[in-house]
Amino acid sequence: MRLVYQILSQVVLGAIGLVVAHFTIADFKLHLAGFFTALAVFTLAQAIFSPIVMKLAERYAASLTGGVGLISTLLALWIASLFQGGIEMRSFMAWIAAPLVIWLITAIGGWLFIRFFVDKRLKRKAAEKTLGRSK
């Protein structure tokens, strides 16, 4: 169940991150027509790149393991920008700022979501199971 919550939180937080980047970064454009495609591609690419980048960082540059989320976010944005009508970044600064903004939102939001919602819910269900068995 935890995996389902993590996937849902990444989709929601990815959407929030993309929208915030759109409104805060001048050369970052998120087109409404391609929003869901961009979100799906971004979320899927993020899920694929995160473990790959982590393994490469652990193997070749252990000091970079802290930046895995940032690097995978940059790669996911690049892949999502290849699909027409979704994400468009028009400057070098957009390529620097957008991954930072989106990574911060997904990292902090993901931690908060898991910490305050999922863990409490799973603990409550476990307690209910335990109480149900002890009767």
List segments where confidence is low: pLDDT < 50 over at least 5 consecutive residues: none
Topology order in helix (H) and strand (E) letters:
HEHHEH
Q: What is the residue-mean pLDDT, rounded to a whole number? A: 84
**Annotation field: number of helices:** 4
Largest sheet: 2 strands, antiparallel
Strand line-up in the sheet with most strands = 1-2
Distance between the termini: 25 Å
What is the count of structural domains?
1
Radius of gyration: 17 Å
Query: How many β-strand stretches?
Result: 2
The helix fraction, in percent, is over 70%
Structural class category: mainly alpha
Strand content: under 5%
Shape: globular
Can you summarize this structure?
The protein is mostly helical and 135 residues long.
Task: Please explain how this structure is put together.
The chain is mainly alpha-helical and 135 residues long. It has one domain. The chain is built from four helices and two strands, in the order αβααβα. It has a two-stranded antiparallel sheet. Helix 3 (68-81) packs across helix 4. The chain is globular.
